[in-house]
Amino acid sequence: MKDHCIQDLISQLNGVYLLSSMGNEEEARRQLMLMAELLRYKISRRDELVSVKTESSIAEGMMYLHASRFGSNLTTSISIQPGTEEQYIPHYLIMTFVENSFYHGFPGVEGPWVLDVAVTGSSATLHVSISDNGCGFDGEVCRTSDAYGTIGSLLKRLESLYGSSGSLTITRDQGTRVHACIPVT
Fold this sequence. Notes:
CATH architecture of the largest domain: 2-Layer Sandwich
Radius of gyration: 16 Å
Structural class: alpha+beta
CATH topology of the largest domain: Heat Shock Protein 90
Strand order of the largest sheet: 2-4-5-7-6
Helix content: 40-55%
Strand content: 15-25%
Oligomer: single chain
Number of strands: 7
């Protein structure tokens, strides 16, 4: 696990400690369960395909935890087109970029922060979009540098799974915009 993930976990645990010490034990338990679920999901199911419903539920949990820390300084949304929930996507397709927003995109950028996830599709193609208003980064660098481990790994998995039928574009435009196009199988 990368240092920034461990640092985030420590910050989340400190938040849970504060909730508990202020008597809000129910919320502290909820957040601990979400953290456990996120960690379990991150380290298991690698190289698997998961449903949009599963991946978006995990992303929603991470967004909830960060919203509890940052309050009105963070706005998040997840929009899933009906009928796409049971379609399959590579594990961590959405989460890679949700994490990236929190760990790299928002730090150092004055809020309020916005993070949106949308999944739409047709009978032939699934479209997954993640956008934030953080500092942004150049998507082409991810294709040519090993420094972008999780994103580079995801790009390789997409190529292996879908060849030229799938695509992933990353653009820098008042933040980062990610768009994955995946054939429905």
